[in-house]
Amino acid sequence: MMSSALIIRHTPYEGIAGFRQPVEEAGFVIDRVDVTDPDFSSIDFLEPDLVVMMGGPMGVYERDAHPWIDCEIARLALRIAAGRPTLAVCLGAQIVAAAMGARVFQGPVKEVGFAPIALNQAGARSPLRHIADVSVLHWHGDTFDLPDGAELLATSESYPQAFRRGPNLLALQCHPEMGDDPRIDIWMEDAAYIEAAGLTVAELRAQHDALGPAAVVAGQKLIADWLDRIA
Known about the structure:
By secondary structure, the protein is of the alpha/beta class. It has one domain: Class I glutamine amidotransferase (GATase) domain (Rossmann fold, 3-Layer(aba) Sandwich), CATH 3.40.50. Helix content is 32%, strand content 26%. Helix 1 links the parallel strand 1 and strand 2.
């Protein structure tokens, strides 16, 4: 019997990307839902064998503009409490932090571009070991306090970058899924955001073309390793 994986997209141009291959190779049948779909509010977050929360340009604190956020957080909190396997990326990681009771807020700087993350001892023993010393994509200006009961795995110069709770919850602030997905072209249309982080679009494109393929390969190894360890 095949296992089910539900991909939750907060915007159509931030999908599972490079993570699709290891998820499918682990035996999961992938379905997806956009938060703007009419039936999103009725989805039982406890039902899928795996939930993957992807990124998006909105902030967790922008709840008046995005009324689905409160509903999503409430259902995700039930899934986390039940210990059901959950993977989260960027905004997804921030939503996981909020669902665990932590503060999510605008940080002092934007991190955009390819750069490595620093693993602590726990991170070096975790599936994140596959992206040690690998430059992966960063694209965020928001951050979070480490939730109670979570174990920090990695940081960047400015922010926490990964945490877990037990074997079944992994949250990544960075984007190891991105590096060969053509939807990056949509991301790069936001020149103002890129320039606010101190890069030009041309510089970021050069980074992506040079470093993206290796980042995706490392990210796929990370996810395959994590899926092997989930309970």
